[in-house]
Amino acid sequence: MADHKAPHAPGYVQNPHYSQEDWNEVADNPEATDEELAQAKPFAEAFPDLAKSIATRGPQKARTKVPISIRLAPDVLAALKATGPGWQTRVSELLRKALRQPRAKRAARLRHKIMAPPRRA
């Protein structure tokens, strides 16, 4: 009997990173056994020259940002996160911009918000 192979290996999900043909080529690799996994070495140990050649980020010379904890209203946080990756940097820029305003103007705006009567719904 001829060896019959399915037209495509199961489990492929179409994506821009690899084709169905790529998937078919490697999909028949057997799972590693417990014995094989026990003998496995870390990448840097198995391929030291290659590991050394891969660029890694060095230690930070000076702290550029300080981690803090801040409480925000859920809707404010959701709106900020909805702007996508980099939202924390944008928050920092918004705060920096607000702090650049003349102090008297900031104080007056804050005083107005504190002293203003609450809005009725």
Describe the protein's architecture and organization:
The chain is 48% helix and 0% strand. It has a domain at 74-115. With 121 residues, the protein is mainly α. The chain is built from seven helices and no strands. The chain is elongated.
* Helix-and-strand structural type: mainly alpha
Helix content: 40-55%
Please provide the ordered H/E string of secondary-structure elements: HHHHHHH
Largest sheet: none
Overall geometric form? elongated
Can you count the helices?
Answer: 7
Summarize the topology.
Elements lengths: L19 H7 L7 H6 L3 H4 L1 H6 L20 H8 L5 H14 L2 H13 L6
Summarize it.
The chain has 121 residues and is an all-alpha fold.
Please describe the structure with a list of short key phrases separated by commas or semicolons.
0% strand, 121 residues
